Amino acid sequence: MAQVTGIGGAFLRAKDPKALYEWYEKHLGLTRRDGCFGFDPAQQRARAVVAFFRTDADYFPVAQPAMLNFHVDDLDAMLDALTAAGVEVDPKRDRYDFGDFGWFTDPEGNRVELWQPKEKNK
């Protein structure tokens, strides 16, 4: 039987896609290739996940249909840089044995999650 072999992408609607691309490039250092952001599989530090939440779950805003989650190499430094740039950053941090999590809100009001995976060999 045929099977899925990985995540192909995340697709979100935006009021101003061009401005949102530019914001993510400036604040997260993402690089656009072929009109979208792409990630080299060799740079992935942890697995990509797909998780389904109940429509009334409060893990991210109920009015927001999806939430992006990006791997980062230094969660606190990234969130400090976003705060210094005037970005709305949630002061809460969750720390687990599989990684650390933090959140910010992008210019279109989307809550975005950052995940610093724990090193595999630790």
TrEMBL record:
It comes from the Bacteria. Residues 6-117 form the VOC domain. Pfam families: Glyoxalase. This is Putative enzyme related to lactoylglutathione lyase. PROSITE patterns: VOC (PS51819). One of its GO terms (molecular function) is lyase activity. Keywords: Lyase. InterPro entries: Anthracycline_SecMetBiosynth, Glyas_Bleomycin-R_OHBP_Dase, Glyas_Fos-R_dOase_dom, VOC_core.
